[in-house]
């Protein structure tokens, strides 16, 4: 009984205690005993020390990269270096506690951040200096690779200019932006100037300089005559609107009695190409120009077109896109001059200037001088023999024209080979006389002056090439001024006509200059040696204002056997060589002046061929001939035209080729003639009324197709002057680019075999 009472008491007590405990847990805050043992794993001091040391080690290991970034900022670099030294010392101390290591890491991180912000602040404050300094440093670092490109001796002057610039740059970049005491030791202006000079010398300009050197040494730099560079002239007229060639082999004021004009409606198919009409020069030559020509100081070759059967020139802009043949006609005027500016970076301070020249008209007294880079005026010597002479002061007497001195001796030419402007059996015109005034005492005096070349005396009927040595050229820009010496004793002195200018550092490039000047191009292919002449782009001389270069865009190629005709590419042909008719021009084309003008066989075209070697050359080329004739019965037949090409470069007076060119029946078909294969060449003898060359007024009947059986023209190695004309009063066909093919022994054997076969 007692035991039951006790259990009942404990049970009641237990329940009450639990109730009270639950109530207490809901109403009282808990108390944490700091000394109470945690149930987690206790920290390992050794590992924590190792982690702190590793973190500081990793940060200290960035020293080289970080400190290097501030090589140009000595004060910032020094402070950062000291911070790294402090961190390294803590790291090296084996007694450093965890806290020591953590404090050292935090301090070093702060120092690194401070260095970066300090540099940014410096850069912002000195932005221009820092920018130029960094650019200069980058360029200086290219010194080795840059100079390696210039190790060839021909680039020595470029190298000589660059080396001091690199040295000056290194002197500046070897200094810091910020000194140890925080000051700025560099002059921002000097850094900026050094940076700009080196940038200019090693950037795009360096490539241009290298290309300039190579062009001068391996070829030439061509300067096309630019009217805008001709200033101070008293003659301000524009070139005649009815001219095409603008360079002529006769006096500008020479003209016979008016020629026959093209009959109305004579053009075929609206082509504006006229058939041949009889006409001849009057034996009494007369000048029918109302003005003493020229009245213009500059002229360019004009390319013509035909619209609705009428001829007219293209615009100046369009013509110059096709050909850059141009001439300075006059330097008349007290302050008249032509200014040429060019860059030169060659290894030598000497280069050579070449340019074509000729007389404007018979009897001109010519003189020309140049001034280089504002120096003294130096006369360009004209004589009859290419030789070394001392430079003549600009005030000395000049070369007289062909009519001035009949007693002067004739001498052979050197630069441009001398040939006559008319066939051998023609009495030479006065313009062909190459007499010049005797040399003056000043011309013969020799001194220590820089030698100059004596250029040939200019003539009307020939294009010669002047050579001017240019010494003490600037590295970079050079300026040449050309003018006529002012001579009170002879105010009528004029400059010769001057064409496009060529600059080179090597006299060995003369052939390349000839090729470009005269549109000549030689090649060796399939055992064939050929040289072609571009009549559009090459300098040449007409003998009448009627001769022109015409663009054809709608021609068809001649049909090959069994094939359809194909459209020809745009073609440029020369028309109105020979004959005595006029062009059928548009109403907008001026009708004057009507000089210079010759007719018949005297209306020639002069071209120049730079032959790669001496020998006999076949002739081929494109042509246009649609001439037809109708007899009294109404029967229409094709009419041939004639071509004669000759030169007297050799002692062979029969050095000419005469042949008849077949008509293709219309004015829309472009044909090819070839003296080797006799393609489109009529071999039968044709009888026609012609004028004799020695007496234009005399008429005779002769066979003109077959007397000259030659298929080849003998050419000398080098420049050959070739004259193209017709026969009698007949026009030649329209003629395109010509190709001269060297005759070989194989060709000769083939001809013999063909002859034997024919005999059988």
UniProtKB/TrEMBL annotation:
Residues 397-410, 417-430 have a biased composition (Basic and acidic residues). Keywords: Signal. Residues 261-291, 389-448 are annotated as: Disordered. Residues 220-743 form the Haemagglutinin Mycoplasma domain. Residues 1-22 form the signal peptide. It comes from the Bacteria. This is FIVAR domain-containing protein. It comes from Mycoplasma tullyi. The lineage of its organism: Bacteria, Bacillati, Mycoplasmatota, Mollicutes, Mycoplasmataceae.
């Amino acid at each position: 009984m007692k035991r039951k009472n006790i259990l009942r008491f404990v049970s009641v007590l237990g329940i009450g205690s639990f109730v009270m405990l639950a109530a207490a847990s809901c109403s009282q805050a808990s108390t944490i005993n700091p000394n109470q043992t945690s149930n987690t794993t206790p920290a390992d001091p050794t590992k924590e020390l190792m982690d702190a040391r590793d973190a500081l080690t990793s940060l200290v290991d960035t020293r080289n990269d970080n400190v290097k970034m501030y090589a140009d900022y000595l004060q910032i670099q020094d402070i950062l270096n000291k911070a790294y030294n402090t961190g390294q010392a803590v790291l090296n101390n084996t007694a450093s506690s965890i806290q020591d290591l953590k404090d050292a890491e935090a301090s070093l991180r702060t120092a690194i951040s401070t260095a970066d912000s300090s540099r940014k602040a410096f850069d912002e404050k000195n932005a221009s200096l820092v920018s130029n300094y960094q650019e200069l440093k980058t360029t200086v670092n290219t010194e080795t690779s840059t100079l390696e490109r210039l190790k060839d001796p021909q680039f020595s002057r470029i190298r000589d200019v660059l080396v001091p610039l690199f040295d000056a740059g290194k002197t500046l970049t070897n200094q810091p932006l910020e000194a140890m005491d925080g000051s700025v030791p560099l002059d921002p202006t000097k850094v900026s100037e050094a940076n700009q000079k080196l940038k200019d010398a090693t950037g795009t300009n360096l490539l241009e300089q290298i290309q300039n050197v190579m062009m001068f040494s391996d070829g030439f730099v061509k300067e096309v005559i630019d009217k805008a560079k001709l200033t101070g002239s008293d003659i301000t007229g524009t070139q005649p609107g009815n001219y095409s060639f603008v360079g002529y082999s006769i006096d500008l004021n020479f003209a016979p009695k008016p020629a026959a004009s093209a009959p109305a409606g004579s053009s075929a198919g609206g082509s504006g190409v006229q058939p041949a009409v009889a006409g001849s020069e009057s034996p009494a030559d007369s000048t029918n120009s109302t003005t003493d020509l020229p009245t213009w100081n500059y002229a360019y070759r004009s390319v013509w077109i035909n619209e609705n059967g009428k001829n007219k020139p293209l615009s100046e802009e369009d013509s110059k896109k096709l050909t850059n043949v141009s001439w300075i006609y006059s330097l008349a005027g007290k302050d008249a001059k032509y200014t040429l500016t060019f860059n030169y970076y060659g290894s030598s301070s000497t280069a050579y200037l070449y340019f074509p020249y000729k007389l404007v008209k018979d009897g001109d007294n010519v003189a020309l001088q140049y001034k280089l880079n504002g120096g003294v005026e130096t006369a360009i010597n004209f004589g009859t023999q290419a030789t070394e002479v001392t430079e003549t002061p600009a005030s000395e007497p000049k070369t007289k024209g062909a009519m001035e001195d009949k007693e002067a001796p004739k001498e052979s030419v050197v630069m441009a080979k001398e040939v006559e402007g008319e066939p051998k059996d023609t009495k030479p015109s006065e313009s062909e006389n190459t007499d010049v005034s005797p040399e003056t005492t000043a011309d013969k005096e020799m001194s220590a002056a820089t030698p100059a070349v004596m250029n040939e005396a200019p003539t009307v009927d020939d294009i010669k090439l002047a050579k001017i040595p240019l010494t003490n050229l600037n590295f970079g820009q050079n300026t040449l001024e050309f003018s006529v010496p002012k001579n009170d004793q002879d105010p009528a002195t004029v400059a010769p006509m001057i064409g496009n200018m060529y600059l080179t550092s090597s006299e060995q490039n003369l052939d390349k200059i000839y090729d470009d000047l005269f549109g000549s191009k030689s090649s060796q292919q399939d055992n064939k040696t050929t040289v072609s002449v571009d009549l559009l782009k090459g300098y040449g001389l007409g003998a009448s204002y009627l001769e022109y270069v015409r663009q054809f865009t709608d021609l068809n190629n001649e049909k090959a056997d069994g094939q359809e005709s194909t459209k020809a590419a745009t073609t440029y042909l020369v028309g109105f060589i020979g004959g005595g008719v006029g062009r059928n021009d548009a109403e907008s084309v001026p009708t004057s002046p009507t000089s210079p003008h010759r007719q018949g066989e005297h209306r020639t075209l002069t071209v120049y061929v730079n032959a790669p070697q001496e020998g006999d050359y076949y002739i081929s080329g494109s042509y246009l001939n649609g001439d037809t004739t109708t007899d009294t019965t109404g029967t229409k037949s094709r009419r041939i035209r004639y071509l004669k090409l000759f030169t007297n470069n050799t002692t062979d007076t029969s050095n000419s080729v005469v042949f008849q060119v077949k008509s293709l029946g219309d004015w829309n078909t472009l044909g090819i003639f070839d003296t080797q294969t006799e393609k489109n060449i009529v071999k039968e003898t044709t009888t026609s009324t012609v004028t004799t060359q020695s007496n234009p007024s005399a008429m005779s009947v002769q066979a003109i197709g077959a007397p000259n059986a030659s298929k080849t023209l003998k050419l000398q190695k080098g420049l050959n002057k070739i004259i193209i004309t017709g026969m009698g009063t007949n026009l030649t066909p329209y003629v395109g680019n010509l190709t001269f093919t060297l005759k070989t022994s194989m060709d000769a054997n083939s001809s013999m075999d063909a002859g034997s076969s024919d005999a059988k």
